[in-house]
Fold:
Amino acid sequence: MLMLPELIVIAAGFIILLLDLFLAEEKKNILGTLAFAGLLIALGRTLFSFGQQGELFGGRFVVDSVAIWFKIIFLLAGMTTVALSWDRLTGKTTDIASRMKHRGEFYTILLFSTAGMMYLISSRDLVTLYISLELSTIPLFVLVAWDRDNPLCGEAGLKYVILGALSSAVLLYGLGILYGLSGSTDLATISQKITHSPALWLSVAMITAGIGFKLTLVPFHMWAADVYQGAPTPVTAHLSVASKAAGMAFIFLLFYRVLGGAFQEWNILFAVLATITMTLGNLVAIIQQNIKRFMAFSAISQAGYLIMGFLGPFPEGLPSMLFYLYAYIFTNLVVFAVIIFYANETGRENIDDYRGLSRTNPIIAGAMMLGLFSLAGIPPLSGFVGKFFLFSVASKAGFHWLVGVAAINSTISLYYYLRIVRQMYIEPTMEDATTLQISPMLAGTIAITTLGAVFFGIIPFFYETINQTVAASDWWSVITATAR
Amino acid sequence: MDYFVVLLLFGLAIGLVSSALWISFLLAPRNPGGIKNEPYECGEQTIGSSWVHFNVGYYLFALIFLIFDVEAAFLFPWAVVFREVGFVAFIEAGLFILVLLTGLAYAWKKGVLEWV
Amino acid sequence: MKKIFLHWGIISGITMFFIMITSVCTAETNLVTLPASPGVGFPILSLMVFSPLLGLLFACLLRNGHGERSAGVATLLSSFVTFALGIYLLLQFDLNHYGFQFVEQVPWIDIFGIQYYLGIDGISLVLVLVAILILPSALAATWSTKEKSWQFQVQTMLLQIGILGSFMALDAILFYTFFEIMLVPLYFMIGIWGGHNRIYATTKFFIYTVFGSLLLLASIIYTGILYHETFGVWSFSIIDWYDLPIPASTQMWLFAGFCLAFAIKAPMFPFHTWLPDAHYEAPTLGSVELAAMLLKLGPYGIIRFVIPLFPDAAHVYVPILIIFGLIGITYGGLVAMVQQKLKKLIAYSSVAHMGYIIIGVFVFNMQGLAGGLIQMINHALVTGALFLCVGMLYQRTKTQEIVDYGGVAHSMPIFACFFLFFSLASIGLPGLNGFVGELMIMLGAARMNIFYAIAAAFGVVIAAVYMLWMYQRVIFGPIKNDMVRNLKDLNLREQLVLIPLAVFTLVLGVYPQPFFDHVNTTLEGYLKQFNAEEFQQQHKFDLAAYWSLKQDK
Structure:
């Protein structure tokens, strides 16, 4: 029963695929409901399995609290993407160009990708790890190129496929070296058998490069802007949230579980990566005009903050990173929900086009503002609390300069997040602006994500819940056992 | 020291390729001309455009074939040890085939199996 | 423009309300009152901090359906509620108790030892009292301007929550939270209701302040971690931090991190450039709150955090900072002299006044601190009142240019009286409060180094020049044009706003003893706790000894 959530998601994917073949076009609304319901049931089952630990296939598939927290993120991201793409797939958008076709396949592929991510965090074996990573990535290639008649979208898809394949290859080389050094594909065995050698560091470098691609760490970020801009916006939202969380899960498994003992030696790598990632992401975001490109660079800089959670060789590291991941997905989805809403209704995607949104749709503009402020880290929103935890981790690990850099970067980020707030609130209203009608699906998404973004910051017990449950997992004892 | 071999191999690989290119650059006679840029450099003039679309059906057929080819490759070892692995493996193989059949059904319904 | 802030108001209102309810509920059950700390039976500080929520919620609910002033009435009434609570607080305040009173302590983020921890001592008491006096005055003064819209009122209430919370917070993270909450409403105040160049001004203001406060956050985190490493438990409480021994080399960095944030906020030369822009573009109420309350957070933070936490670093930095304060006084005054616009002139005079306060705080003796504190109050009252006066004038004429005025005394005699009164107070005329503050600061400075006091005294002369010259150009002389001729004098509401401020200005100037009664115990204890004597000895510049040394040579 441990694998039940994954099985539910996959089964829902297959049912949707088959139903799509035989349902009449006007009845296909049920497909979206089914996808949502499948993810929801899987989410319920996952939540229900807190406190249960167990393994299948001789320890190749493990469910523990860390895995459960990550799976909740993946499922939530999947559900939100279903909700965000609802209007586009059902053809209810005012802007005809933003409608999307083939909804049965869309949901199927989305569910498969989600299942891949869920397997990823439960894997304890290089082979299953890599296969589940590919299962989560290859569907994303398809999703990115969904709107294939749009040249930008096609370009995005092509870039994503080629660079994604390259990064997978590099990653696979790294994993192969790891296998060669230890003679085992089992993560626990590897962590005991590996010793210091140049080959190990070559492998670490390759793995970092490969997974840095997923996480959009600088200098492996080049694809992000074009892909984020070209992909259909719900897919962009999914990429910025789920794909990033999957990358974090992968890094967690390899660096904490396998290389955890050699903490002190590789955390400088992450400190440097974090520094250049957040700095470059922030500086380039300032000059963006397209809001999706803008969010791409914002996501890059957020990835820089996120990996600060990996710096600390102490038990607060992982919970802080998880908390920020939660804060980040909620706040990021608020912003993307508003972007999708605005693009659905007007087809506009430039930052200047948001002029006067606060006067036509005040509540939505308010939600967007909260989301942006939370991304920038203004207290008491969740982004601030998350950043506080991450800064604490970095500071406790001895990287005080990094905290300073991150603080300066937060100022820069505030400047460009304020650009949008300024457009919405201060600049004169667009000439043709009218009050836009929001669909119930998007309204619900915005409401729920905004509440999440606000309340995670104010109600602290969420962090404590993460901390307590994560403490029940064996990740920390793995690190201390292999510490050198 | 163990890694000196790797470095050596690395250097050799690069050296071999670059020297081959360099030598051919030095030795080969060069006589560039417009006709050399034609797609078929076999002396014949091409008739019509060489940029033609193949029927997408070829690719789809090849894909479907590939799926069942791989299926067979998986099922052979299973069939050899069928008696030993027992009923559970039978169910698992059944699920595997079911998944592939779903793909076939999808392709069929989408009209892949119809030529023209 | 009708519905702009509904959502922001409601969301933050509900959020804050949630905090308030939880804090009040938990306060009933697990309020951990310090043994020796006096207080009342209910969480009065929480009530005060979150009482502006009443106005905020009502302003959101009433918005435009009940007449356009309904939101204004709601916020004004709620500011009176805050005021009443403040008066009760003042009456219950124990004058002879050193330490924090009315303490409320509830765990917030328990894992990191972060608490919802409020408390006041004499220093915060007087600042809180000024805050609750200024707000109703400013609300009433801007009654009939464009700031009457309910969206603006919502921002005002949020701002007040941030201000009161910052002065009362005893937990560094809580302080930081309130500190940041203030920025958002002010950003919108300037950005939406400001002048022509408002976007530049508001962005500059925001970036400057956030840059400082993020370094503050980084330093707070580092100090917290240091505390954890030293004592093995997490705490972000300032009171706990006072016991934390910090290595001198570390102190240098942390001092810089903390002090930069507060220096930007104060603003201390050379970090002052955001202030004139923000002031000039801000609407009247924004200017008043900015000058009167927000700037005070700089010196307050220095008193509360910087000097007590990092005494060793303070020894090193203090001479430099005092020099910066002196430059601020002179430079602010000289630049004010050549300003063509009323608000910019007063803004630069603020830079000069804040220079005095910074000197008073950093000389770190009884006279200096008490003088700095009373000067903070003076500056809040007087500069606040000056901005209100300019706002009243601007509302009638829509011009800030000094050259457009002249002979205002003929058409607005009452206004001219008030304006003169506050201008003189700003210069530091004996008998008015500015004199008391500046005198005490100079006394304190003289105790440390006589040259500091001499240099600071020049500032008073400069202040007299620019203030009186401005006054003469605006108020006196023949009536310059029709615009001035047709000015209407202050109405009853405007007079009622200015009278209390004038009364306090006069009372503090003539009889400041009640003020000193309230801060004395705190300051004495404070100076003793943080070894002010030793500090004085180290930095004392003995002119006589120096002189005789020279003679011997």
Summary: Confidence is low (pLDDT under 50) at residues 1-6, 27-36 of chain C. The two ends of chain C are 75 Å apart (CA to CA). Chains C and B do not touch (no CB pair under 8 Å).
